[in-house]
Amino acid sequence: MEATVDFLEGKIKRMNDNTAVAVTTSDAVEFKMKSILKNMDEAAMATDDLKTRVTHMEGRHVSFSVQYRRNGNTESLKKETTLKFNHVYFNGGSGYDTTTGIFTVPVSGVYYFIFFIEGLQKKDDCVLADVHLYVDSWVVTVVYTGQHQNCKLMQASNAYINNLSKGQEVRLMTGTSCDEYTIVSYSTSFSGFLLD
Prior knowledge:
By secondary structure, the protein is an alpha+beta fold. Helices cover 29% and strands 39% of the residues. The chain starts with a helix and ends with a strand.
C-alpha cells in the first residue's frame, strides 16, 4: 500500500508540476498575445495615418503647360478676349480647358503661373501686347509692351503665385488699351502648377 501511496503522490507531484508549467506557458502566451495585439493596433494606426496621407496627396499633382498655335504665324484678337491655348504639352489634373481657355483649380493650394506673350504691332497707334491674368473676375497681373518705332515684334512675360481655392478660374485675356491685338503663334505660352 505504501508503494501505491508513493506512486499516487508522484503522479500528483507530476500533475502539479505540469499544471505549473501549463500556467507559466499560458502566462507567456497571454503576454505574447497582448504584445501581438499591441503591434496590430500600432500597425492599424500607422495604416490609417498612411491612408490619410495618401488621400491628402491624391489629386495633388496638378500642372499644365499650353502653347498658342494657329494656322498662320499670328492671330488678331479683339480687346477683352480670352486667349485659348490650343496646343497642350501637359495637363495633369485636367484643369486647363482648351475650348474655353480657362484653368479651373481642381485642388485648393498654392499655385504658380507664368506666361509669355509675343505681340506684333500692325498699327503705329497701338501697343504690341496687353494681356491680363485673371483669377475669377479680378486682374491680378499684366504684361504690357508699349509702342515702339523701330520694333514691330516684342515679347513680355510675367508670373503670379497665390493660394487658390478649388473651383476658382484662371485665364489670360487681352487688355483694353487697343481694339485689336495681334498675338504671335508658338512663342506665346501659359503654364501653371500646384506648389503645395
